[in-house]
């Protein structure tokens, strides 16, 4: 206890140094005076009295020194001295201090911000119980790697599997909520009874779904998300136990989900209901609408689970050859499904930010080297005056630490800001698919990351000059103007660092180049229609439009109303819009051809008669539908080029007939035309065979409207929405947007665009830092060689020769950086091949362009020092040193 | 003991005892008092006193305060604290024991039988 108190006081002593020194001086002074007084009283002369008193007090300085050692902790005291010295040095050199700190801050800021995203998406555990044991389970078809489960298949999987503690299913869907303000369409999901138990999530209020609550006879119940509860019901507890009108039916609210719960595959679902497998799609084994989530039994591996579900799928294939032919099974960690496409992009960005940080650190390290070079005399003097090597090294360590700490603090603060900006840049509907990014910010893991990076940077920064110190020769350092070998040593290390920097910059530039070119290629993809001047929106009509006749009438009315508005060229209806996804498929069979039960899976689209005209899709052969072709007329179908190529190679498909797998008479349709491929999925997806049915022959009360306008499509959105609502105020209109916006905000496009911009930004900064590094080395080398150059010029060297001398030196470095950079970049690019589109990782034009950019920048950077070298005046150069 | 040597531990003990006997006192006074008590057989290098005083203060056994001396000079006065008094008692006890033990070794032989 006493010990601790003593140490605390001594620690405190570190800070009140001046006051303490003054106090001791006062005390000693008063001591002396009293002693002198006594001596005079004893009869001494005043001079004698003082001499004796001083003698008796002993060496005044030794006394003070002993007192000081006792007053503080000597080691720390000298550390504080070093710290003060460092701060003074840094203040004297604001350019160096600001540059070094800013570079570290930049590197830290970029990498910490990106790391926060990586942390949120890939490191932070999902808000479920024991997430590693959760699997995503579903069926596959030869064409679709992750197809949906059918309800009967799900029940069989649940019963027959030996690897899951539990298996549940969900289905993303939309609900129409009747509120005081009218009908509102909200996101939601229907799930099997044990869904939340499988995830290990318990409602914070109310209860979970009962076992059996997903059966047809169960009452309608729902669970609300926390956000919806807060937003719509002000967080009132009484809402549990009350009824809401959803899809024009009464639903009892039974529970509220926890605040941190999210389930990305259904985006921001507000309402969770149970599936009621009473009819429709859910009773048919061939109708696939569900996705599975399973909890593994303890100790069962993912691959064992895959083997087991594959076994079940094979059994079902034998048992139900009609519906289950080629239906396989797949499992994946749930986290993979949730993070999905963001994973490679995030890792790429983290890599980019890491490289940028590396360059920044190298630059600071070489700045420190230059400084240690210019301080050789100071160091030699201190050494000669008795400073130990350790003490000098400690000086560098402290200097490195000060810079790193300053850079880290500034970096963390600006990364906080950078995160906000980056999150703000994500469009709202993208954010819905990435709920794990909510509450993104500085947390323990991000700070630990910064600490780790900062610590390693500090080690490097303090070791570089310290390493140099070991080669310091005191006598040589003291010699006036002595340069000798030391300058060369530095130039050697420094130039290696520059090559490393240029290599890194090259890798980043190539990455940015490849990504930009991929993005450009993606935008060049022909969607098969003209996306300009198109408005799209979703129309959901209430139950009284469910009957086919009413739905057809509604469709006609919608088209008619919109067409009567000014500025509208044409209007079309469709179940599923282009550029959304490949899926919603149909198994077709050809009349008059041998059939052995294979599944000819094609995209199935229901579109209105003006669909192709409105999209300006190219009809290659035959005709399109007429509006009059409804249930009263023979069934017809248009196919796309891909379907024609695949199933009618070298044949004329017009007039051929197709039907379902049983060729049931009602399913038989005649092919009346072939349309050029329209991209149904995202721009970077492949083209699937597709068939287009007349909307009027298979209508729906829930459909998309596509409107072509003569110009300024965005301003017409409100008018068009209003026209639809005017038909019936109970009709819900949602997702109003333009086709261009839809295309630009598509997840694939967004991910590519944002990663391209970010990597390009990193690359630009890297290029700048690398070039500045090259400039630094060349300029330093010139300054070291001023005398040599002076002699050369005095002896008759031409200015051009001097230019060549310096430029060659810099050129060798730049070339080394470019060559090694190209090698490394190709290697890196093969790792990110998934993110490239339409170009190989070794795309020659990109490599050549990037090399040219780097080469020209390097040339410019070395031209300035070269000009200085060439303009050296021999006389003054020789006199200067 | 030669005339000008005082080892650290003993010096601390002497300071504490001096303050115990005389009450608050400045450094110079303590030094003089120690010399006087020793009958001038002990010669103190006054400078060494101050690190000891600082140490005792850090241990919390003495406290200091600026005041005025008899001759109207400003001086820093030291006084014993409560824990200092306890410490002094402890050290006195220890010292007595030690000296008693050592004394036994130097006592005439017949004492042992």
What does this entry look like structurally?
The complex is a heterodimer of chains A (881) and B (113). Chain A is built from 29 helices and 22 strands. Chain A is of the alpha+beta class. In chain A, the strands form three sheets. Chain A has a six-stranded mixed β-barrel with strand order 3-4-9-6-8-7. Chain A is elongated and about 135 Å long. Chain B is α+β, with helices and mostly antiparallel strands. Chain B has helices at 8-22, 27-37, 49-59, 82-106; strands spanning 25-26, 62-68, 74-80. Chain B has a three-stranded antiparallel beta sheet. The longest helix of chain B has 25 residues, at 82-106. The chains are: A alpha+beta (881), B alpha+beta (113). The A-B interface holds A 2, 5-6, 9-10, 23-24, 26-28, 30-31, 33-35, 37-38, 56-60, 62-63, 66-67, 69-71 and B 26-29, 32, 45-48, 50-51, 54-55, 58-60, 69, 71, 73-76.
Overall average residue pLDDT of chain A: 87
3D shape of chain B: globular
How would you write the strand order of the largest sheet of chain A?
Answer: 3-4-9-6-8-7
Please report the total strand number of chain A as a whole number.
Answer: 22
Amount of beta strand of chain A: 15-25%
Beta-strand percentage range of chain B: 5-15%
Average pLDDT metric of chain B: 82
Instruction: Supply Rg of chain B.
Output: 16 Å
Q: Estimate the helix proportion of chain A, in percent.
A: 40-55%
Q: What's the alpha carbon Rg of chain A, rounded to whole Å?
A: 38 Å
Give the neighbour order of strands across the main sheet of chain B.
Answer: 1-3-2
Query: What is the helix tally of chain B?
Result: 4
């Amino acid at each position: 206890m006493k010990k601790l108190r003593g140490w605390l006081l001594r620690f405190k002593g570190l800070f009140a140094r001046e006051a303490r020194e003054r106090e001791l001086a006062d005390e000693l002074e008063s001591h002396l005076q009293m002693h002198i007084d006594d001596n005079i009283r004893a009869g001494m002369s005043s001079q004698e009295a003082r001499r004796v008193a001083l003698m008796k007090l002993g060496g005044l300085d030794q006394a003070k020194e002993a007192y000081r050692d006792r007053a503080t902790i000597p080691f720390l005291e000298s550390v504080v001295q070093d710290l003060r010295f460092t701060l003074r040095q840094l203040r004297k050199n604001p350019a160096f201090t600001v540059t070094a700190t800013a570079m570290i801050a930049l590197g830290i800021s970029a990498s910490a911000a990106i790391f926060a995203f990586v942390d949120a998406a890939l490191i932070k555990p999902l808000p479920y119980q024991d997430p590693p044991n959760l699997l995503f389970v579903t069926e596959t078809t030869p064409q679709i790697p992750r197809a949906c489960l059918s309800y009967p298949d799900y029940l069989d999987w649940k019963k027959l599997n030996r690897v899951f503690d539990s298996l549940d299913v969900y289905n993303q869907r939309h609900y129409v909520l009747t509120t005081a303000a009218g009908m509102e369409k909200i996101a939601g999901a229907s799930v099997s009874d044990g869904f939340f138990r499988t995830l290990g999530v318990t409602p914070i209020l109310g209860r979970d779904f009962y076992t059996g609550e997903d059966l047809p006879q169960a009452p309608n119940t729902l669970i609300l998300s926390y956000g919806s509860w807060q937003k719509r019901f002000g967080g009132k507890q009484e809402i549990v136990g009350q009824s809401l009108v959803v899809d024009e039916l009464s639903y009892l609210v039974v529970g509220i989900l926890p605040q941190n719960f999210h389930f990305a595959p259904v985006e921001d679902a507000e309402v969770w209901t149970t599936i009621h497998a009473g009819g429709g799609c859910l009773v048919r084994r061939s109708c696939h609408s569900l996705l599975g989530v399973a909890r593994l039994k303890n100790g069962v591996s993912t691959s064992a689970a895959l083997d087991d579900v594959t076994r079940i799928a094979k059994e079902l294939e034998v048992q139900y050859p009609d519906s289950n032919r080629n239906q396989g099974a797949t499992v994946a960690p749930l986290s993979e499904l949730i993070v999905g496409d963001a994973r490679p992009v995030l890792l790429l960005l983290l890599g980019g930010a890491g490289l940028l940080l590396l360059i920044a650190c190298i630059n600071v390290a070489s700045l420190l080297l230059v400084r240690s070079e210019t301080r050789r005399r100071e160091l030699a003097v201190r050494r000669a005056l008795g400073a130990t090597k350790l003490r000098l090294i400690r000086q560098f360590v402290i200097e490195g630490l000060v810079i790193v700490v300053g850079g880290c603090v500034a970096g963390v603060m600006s990364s906080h800001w950078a995160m906000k900006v980056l999150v703000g840049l994500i469009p709202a509907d993208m954010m819905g698919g990435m709920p794990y990014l909510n509450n993104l910010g500085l947390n323990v893991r991000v700070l630990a990351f910064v600490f780790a990076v900062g610590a390693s940077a500090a080690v490097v920064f303090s070791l570089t000059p310290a390493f140099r110190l070991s080669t310091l020769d005191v006598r040589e350092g003291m010699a006036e103007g002595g340069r000798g070998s030391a300058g060369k040593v530095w130039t050697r290390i420094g130039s290696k660092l520059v090559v490393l920097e240029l290599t890194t910059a090259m890798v980043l530039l190539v990455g940015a180049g490849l990504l930009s070119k991929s993005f450009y290629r993606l935008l060049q993809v022909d969607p098969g229609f003209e996306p300009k001047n198109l408005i799209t929106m979703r129309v959901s009509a209430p139950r009284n439009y469910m009957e086919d006749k009413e739905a057809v009438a509604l469709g006609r009315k919608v088209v008619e109303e919109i067409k009567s508005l000014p500025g509208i060229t044409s209007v079309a209806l469709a179940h599923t819009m282009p550029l959304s996804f490949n899926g919603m498929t149909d198994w077709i069979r050809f009349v008059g051809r041998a059939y052995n039960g294979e599944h000819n899976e094609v995209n199935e689209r229901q579109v209105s008669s003006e669909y192709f005209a409105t999209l300006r899709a190219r009809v290659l052969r035959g005709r399109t539908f007429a509006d009059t072709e409804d249930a009263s007329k023979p069934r017809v179908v248009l196919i796309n080029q891909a379907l024609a190529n695949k199933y009618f190679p070298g044949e004329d498909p017009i007039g051929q007939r197709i039907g379902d797998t049983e060729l049931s008479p009602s399913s038989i349709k005649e092919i009346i035309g072939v349309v050029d491929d329209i991209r149904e999925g995202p721009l970077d997806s492949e083209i699937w065979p597709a068939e287009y049915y007349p909307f009027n022959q298979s209508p729906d009360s829930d459909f998309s409207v596509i409107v072509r306008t003569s110009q300024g499509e965005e301003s017409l959105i409100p008018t068009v929405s209003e026209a639809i609502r005017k038909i019936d105020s109970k009709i819900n209109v949602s997702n109003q947007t333009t086709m261009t916006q839809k295309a630009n905000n598509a997840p694939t496009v967004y991910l590519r665009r944002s990663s391209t911009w970010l990597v390009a930004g990193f690359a630009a900064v890297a290029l700048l830092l690398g070039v500045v590094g090259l400039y630094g080395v060349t300029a330093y080398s010139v300054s070291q060689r001023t005398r040599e150059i002076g002699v050369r010029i005095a002896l008759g060297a031409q200015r051009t020769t001097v230019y060549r001398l310096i430029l060659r030196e810099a050129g060798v470095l730049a070339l080394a950086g470019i060559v090694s950079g190209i090698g490394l970049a190709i290697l890196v690019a093969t790792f990110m091949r998934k993110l490239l589109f339409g170009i190989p990782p070794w795309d020659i034009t990109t490599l050549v362009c990037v090399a040219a950019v780097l080469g020209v920048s390097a040339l410019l950077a070395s031209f300035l020092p070269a000009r200085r070298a060439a303009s050296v005046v021999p006389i003054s150069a020789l006199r200067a040193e | 003991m030669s005339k000008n040597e005082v080892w650290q531990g003993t010096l601390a003990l002497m300071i504490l005892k001096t303050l115990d006997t005389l009450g608050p006192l400045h450094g110079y006074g303590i030094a003089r008092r120690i010399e006087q008590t020793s009958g001038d057989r002990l010669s103190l290098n006054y400078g060494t006193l101050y690190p000891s005083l600082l140490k005792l203060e850090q241990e919390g056994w003495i406290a200091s305060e600026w005041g005025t001396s008899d001759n109207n000079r400003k001086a820093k006065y030291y006084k014993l604290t409560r824990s200092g008094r306890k410490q002094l008692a402890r050290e006195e006890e220890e010292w007595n024991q030690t000296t008693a033990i050592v004394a036994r070794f130097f006592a005439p032989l017949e004492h042992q039988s």
